[in-house]
Design goal:
heterodimer, A: 838 residues, alpha/beta, Double Clp-N motif, Rossmann fold, Helicase, Ruva Protein, domain 3, 5 domains, B: 128 residues, mainly alpha, elongated, transmembrane helix (chain B), membrane (chain B)
């Protein structure tokens, strides 16, 4: 168990750092001379004719062998600290020889040439192969990095620093490096720990370099795992075929079904319908676990108690339920478990094969036989994945498998681990309280991003071997981060594993030698249709002109267009508010003025297509119960329309039409969405809204807007008063959570004419593309259509109908009658008040 | 410079004391750990402790007279073989460590001219 170490209570003391450069040089010379003398003396003495000298030579040899064992090691190992108090320990005792030499050399450089001690140590560190390798894995060119360090050193090389200050800096650095090494469970303070520690010092120059190369010092230790394992496995072993193989395995243990006490009984029928996880652990197929410490310890405690030793693991697919159980099997074969688990087998029952090809009667017989075997063998811990399937195995006139097992489970005769999903727990098991009460529920939570990165690094080492491609650390990090953000159908690490594997396969097929973060990003973008990459010059230009792009399809409503454009620009620059949606707007105004149209245009131009818009007509959510249609029903039978849509399409535009018409309780769920960008559904899943833009529309108080505009007031003048009026429709806390409330003004005749032109141009384009017909509209026709399509109450809403009735329908009939053919130029004119096609 | 020489002397003494500490304490710790790990691995096969604990139980829960008889016979054999192997292993381990511990004394004795054949062999012979 890791102890908390107080930096104030540890010391750094080594007299060699108090020496002058000359003294250190002298000390090194004496040390080397001593060993040279000793080696020469040993050889001479051993081959001497004098017997006593030969014995002296042998004694020297033993001394030299002992020293050879300590090459590159520290005085003490950090591992020993687990059993001793850490207060007052001297951190210099844990510096590996390599780290010590680097510190010593950097100190000499700083004292003799001047400059910043941290920069000098950084320069010395990046000369090391493993640090260069780790930088390369982090997609940082070691050459460029070194060049930048040199530039910084050059800038302040004349700055002299007094020795005392250097010693204080060494002390600070070594103490932080010690903590890093201790947390990473390293044996000594290695150069990688010092590199990580430098990033946490107060040096501005270092911070500047790390920012420039986007280096997170903590990542380096993880990036070093690659080289550490590659080196380890290149020397003596073959890389494991599966991730489970990384678990430290005992050797020489044979495959066995019976326990070592010879008190168990064979279980032939159980063996037919199950997999023995302890066997797999012996074969080093399973047992590697990262994270899930809490769940693992809970599981061990429950299984070890005398009464009700049954656990139900509840977690989403890919959350690691089976991995935790596998770890228990692994610990059993290592004898690292308590008495009630000692010398047992963990057997995974395959319900699929248990019920396949059997009628309910046969299933009952099989279950009874299996239970009999388990009870009599007394060394089985039964693991039942998808345990909810047990309650689904009943037929007419027959008991379900769950019913048969119930009495046995109740008697505490065997230890049982069940696994299910939150949805199935609600749907199938909660109604069976008699069955559920036998188990203690342990919720298996998603592992953290940090843990997932570590796990995926191990996975990458295997995949690198299989696909002959090098995986950069940044690619792993990006895969975890993107999977956690956008691929929420599965949990970490499964979601990130899938993404990483897909990226590796594609990169490998393309013949790439290295998988970089950019590749993972582009695959993710393709899958979720989210612009994740940093905005290119071209995209930046288009973002800067977003208002013009929108105005190609939307007339007027300047304020609304400007607000949404700004929100999109902030999001793509990474400056939007963290922890909330991209933006949330309330569009208010009369009907037919372009509220919904603007949402559609945005969905098309910025979110990929109109299908990226998730639309809810809030007038359909007027009763209190409709909240469940958004987040799902408590019994799990109805899934949430809003939450499911966002899980499927995390980057989307949510349009909440006629927002004021929904039940107030339904509107309350949006408080959390607008504020934190998250919403918990009926199954307890937290849905992320941080990549959505939410637009709510409303007609509330639109007459007030019309009156005020007609009285010559500007929108900015009426905005505050208008917001007060909205308070009678929406609760103030809801209104205040919108990024902005945007007022849409009534459309003028001029606006309608422009919209008509826009719509007719669209139609002409459509006709040209699909039918090869060139349509040309006379100005008088445009004017006529705009008059027909305008309604003071409905704004531009009737316009589509007017175009459809007067132009589209007529044209369609003429095309079908073959009066208008491909390649024809059709001029639409107004003659005698009638629209004529020529 | 005085501090330098004190440190120099200090390191010299430290290296010698460290060699002795590692020869006896560190090696004993490492060796004990190695032997215990070896015994643990052997226990995966011989299961001495578990066999002893379940000594009176029938073999594979065969609660007939045969189960008890076979349980007694097989467990006795297993206990005997296990105890023998463990005994040999532990004895060997102790001998090896004693020899290891005596190596420096033996070398030093030879350096100072202590004649083992004169003293030790003769005393051992006298014992018998």
């Amino acid at each position: 168990m890791e102890k908390k170490i107080d930096l104030e209570k540890i010391i750094f003391c080594d007299p060699r750092f108090d020496f002058s450069i000359f003294q250190r040089f002298l000390w090194n010379c004496i040390s080397y001379a001593f060993y040279v003398f000793l080696v020469v003396g040993t050889v001479v003495f051993i081959f001497s004719d004098v017997e006593r000298l030969r014995w002296v030579g042998l004694l020297f040899l033993l001394f030299l062998i002992d020293r050879a064992f300590l090459i590159n090691k520290a005085k003490h190992s950090i591992v020993e600290l687990n059993s001793t108090p850490t207060d007052g320990i001297n951190t210099s005792d844990f510096l590996s020889a390599k780290s010590f030499r680097i510190l010593e050399r950097s100190m000499d450089m700083t004292e003799s040439v001047g400059g910043d001690f941290y920069l000098n140590i950084l320069k010395n560190l990046i000369k090391r192969k493993e640090i260069r390798g780790a930088l390369w894995r982090m997609e940082v060119s070691p050459e460029e990095f070194e060049q930048k360090v040199d530039e910084e050193i050059e800038k302040i090389k004349d700055k002299k620093i007094i020795k005392k200050e250097v010693i204080i800096k060494v002390e600070e650095l070594v103490k932080i490096a010690f903590l890093k090494a201790y947390t990473s469970q390293n044996i000594f303070i290695e150069p990688g720990d010092i590199f990580s520690a430098i990033g946490e010092t107060s040096s501005e120059a270092i911070k500047k370099i790390f920012y420039l190369f986007s280096i997170n010092a903590n990542d380096l230790n993880k990036a070093l795992i690659f080289s550490r394992y590659r080196h380890k496995y290149s020397l003596v072993k073959r890389l494991p075929q599966t991730i489970g193989g990384f678990a430290r395995k005992p050797f020489g243990i044979r495959h066995r079904i019976m326990n070592r006490a010879w008190t168990a009984k064979p279980t032939p029928i159980l063996d037919m319908f199950s997999d023995d996880l302890t066997d797999l652990a012996r074969e080093s197929e399973i047992g590697f676990l990262i994270g899930h410490k809490k769940e693992h310890s809970q599981l061990l405690n429950i299984l070890s108690r005398p009464t009700r030793p049954n656990v139900l693991l509840v977690g989403e697919p890919g959350s690691g339920k089976e991995t935790i159980v596998s770890r228990i099997a692994f610990e059993i074969i290592k004898d690292k478990v308590s008495e009630p688990l000692f010398d047992k087998r963990v057997v995974s029952l395959q319900i699929g094969s248990l019920i396949s090809g059997a009628d309910p009667k046969e299933v009952s017989e099989r279950v009874n036989k299996i239970l009999g075997e388990i009870i009599s063998s007394k060394n089985i811990i039964l693991y039942i994945p998808d345990i909810h399937n047990l309650v689904k195995t009943s037929g007419e006139g027959f008991m379900s498998a769950a019913d048969i097992m119930l009495s046995v489970f109740k008697s505490d005769a065997i230890q049982v681990i069940g696994a299910t999903y939150p949805k199935e727990l609600k749907l199938s098991l909660e109604s069976r309280s008699d069955f559920l009460n036998i188990f203690e529920i342990v919720r298996v939570e998603e592992i953290s991003e940090d843990e997932a990165i570590t796990l995926l690094i191990y996975e990458s080492i295997i995949l690198e071997e299989q696909y002959k491609i090098i995986v950069s650390f940044e690619a792993v990090k990006e895969a975890v981060s993107l999977a956690h953000k956008y691929f929420r159908q599965k949990l970490l690490p499964s979601s990130a594993e899938d993404l990483l594997k897909e990226s590796i396969v594609e990169a490998s097929q393309r013949g790439d030698k290295v998988l970089k973060a950019d590749h993972v990003i582009s695959i993710s973008e393709r899958k979720v249709n989210v612009p994740i990459h940093k905005a290119s010059k071209e995209e930046a230009k288009s973002l800067l002109n977003l208002e013009d792009t929108i105005h190609q399809s939307l007339i007027d409503q300047e304020e609304a267009v400007k607000s949404v454009s700004s929100a999109i620009r902030e999001y793509r620059s990474g400056l939007s508010r963290q922890g909330g949606p991209i933006a949330s707007f309330l569009f208010v105004g009369p009907t037919g003025v372009g509220k919904t149209e603007l949402a559609k245009i945005l969905a098309k131009t910025q979110f990929g297509s109109e299908s990226a818009m998730v639309r809810f007509d809030m007038s359909e959510y007027q009763d209190k119960q409709s909240i469940f249609r958004f987040i799902g029903s408590p019994d799990g039978k109805i899934s949430g329309g809003l939450t499911e849509s966002i899980i499927q399409k995390p980057y989307s535009l949510i349009l909440l039409d006629e927002f004021e018409k929904a039940h107030p309780d339904t509107l309350n769920i949006f408080l959390q969405v607008f504020d934190d960008g998250r919403l918990t559904d009926n199954l307890g899943r937290v849905v992320d809204f941080t990549n959505t833009m939410i637009i709510a529309t409303s007609n509330a108080e639109s007459n007030y807007i019309k009156e005020q505009i007609e009285n010559g007031k500007k929108i900015s003048e009426i905005k505050d008063e208008f917001k007060k009026k909205l308070a009678s429709y929406f609760r103030p806390e809801l209104l205040n959570r919108f990024s902005d409330v945007i007022i849409f003004k009534n459309l003028s005749r001029g606006d309608i004419l422009s919209i008509t032109k826009l719509q007719l141009n669209k139609l002409a384009k459509l006709a040209a593309e699909n039918q090869g017909i060139s349509l040309d509209f006379d100005d008088a026709v445009v004017d006529k259509i705009s008059k027909i399509g305008y309604d003071p109450v409905f704004g531009a809403r009737p316009l589509r109908g007017a175009i459809s009735e007067n132009i589209k329908n007529v044209l369609a009939e003429r095309i079908l009658r073959d009066e208008v053919k491909k390649g024809d130029v059709v001029r639409v004119v107004l003659e005698g008040g009638e629209i004529i096609f020529k | 410079m005085g501090a330098f020489f004190i440190f120099f002397l200090n390191r010299f003494i430290y290296r010698i004391s460290e060699f002795i500490r590692r020869w006896y304490l560190e090696s004993a710790r490492f060796y004990t750990h190695f032997i215990i790990s070896l015994l643990e691995k052997l226990d995966g096969t011989f299961a001495l402790k578990i066999t002893w604990r379940h000594f009176g139980e029938p073999l594979y829960q065969d609660r007939t007279i045969f189960g008890y008889i076979f349980g007694f016979i097989f467990r006795s054999i297993r206990l005997f073989i296990g105890a023998f192997i463990y005994g040999v292993l532990i004895t060997l381990a102790v001998i090896i460590f004693v020899v290891w511990a005596l190596i420096p004394f033996y070398i030093i004795a030879n350096i100072i001219g202590y004649d083992f054949s004169e003293n030790v062999n003769w005393k051992i012979a006298k014992l018998f």
